[in-house]
Amino acid sequence: MENVAKGDAGIGVVYSPMIWSDVEAITRQFDETWGDYALLRGDKKLSMLLSYHFVLHYIEPATRGEIAHKNGEFMGVVLSRVVGQPVMFGNVAEEMAKIDERLNSTPAGHKALADLELGFEIERRMERQTGINDKAPAEVELFLVSSASRGQGVGGELWKRTMEYFERFHEPMFYLHTDSDCDVSFYDRHGMKRIAEREEQRHPDDGRDQQMAPNKMYIYAGVPGKVKTTVSQK
């Protein structure tokens, strides 16, 4: 089922449930946005593979995905998870294993993948330290808007639709991971609370390659129905 945005902001943008064929466009945009991996030294092929692993990691637990597109062009995506709901796709683990095999076949890819997996373990450690999974049975897995569509209301509309999804299940709280490579002010403006912050350079014993690590990692949390879905631009 597709919905076309109304009003001046984002006019003509179509919002529809994610299907598997959308993975390619999501991966391309992910790589364009965050794919400058120092460990890969500009190897575009390996960069796309690593971005694909990232995207699959976020898709695997997701119970809902919504895509924004206009005239056939990808504009944004939100992947979200509600505990107890069925995941969207059951083939993700097998696909990820194929990608990891290709990454591990080169020294640079192997090192980058190991660094990435350690980053995910650090996120899980932050979750355990905050106890967030006991408090929040919902999560925004990935929130990505293309650079070409920013300022058109796409991010705000995707956010609003995700909050409506969480409210449908009466979720008491949701959370998300983000870092200083992202526009974290979006979450501040929408009334979320930063419940965890970690400066990577303070943890050299982790063994994580500092060329690839973000400066800071955060967990934000909010209550559906209480966080803002629209923010004044004034």
Widest sheet: strand ordering = 1-2-3-4-5-6-8-7
Mean pLDDT, all residues = 89
**Low-confidence spans:** 202-214
What coarse outline follows from CA principal-axis ratios?
globular
Question: Structural class of the secondary elements?
Answer: alpha+beta
The biggest sheet amounts to: 8 strands, mixed
Share of helix, binned? 25-40%
How would you explain this protein's 3D organization?
The chain starts with a strand and ends in a 12-residue tail after the last strand. The chain has an eight-stranded mixed sheet with strand order 1-2-3-4-5-6-8-7, with helices on both faces. It is 38% helix and 22% strand. With 234 residues, it is an alpha+beta fold. The protein contains seven helices and eight strands; from the N terminus they run E-E-H-H-E-E-H-H-H-E-H-E-H-E-E. The longest helix has 24 residues.
Write the layout of secondary structure elements.
Elements: E1 3-4, E2 14-17, H1 23-34, H2 44-59, E3 64-70, E4 73-82, H3 92-104, H4 107-130, H5 132-135, E5 138-145, H6 154-168, E6 174-179, H7 185-189, E7 193-199, E8 216-222
Parallel strand pairs: 5-6
Antiparallel strand pairs: 1-2, 2-3, 3-4, 4-5, 6-8, 7-8
Helix pairs in contact: 1-2, 2-3, 3-4
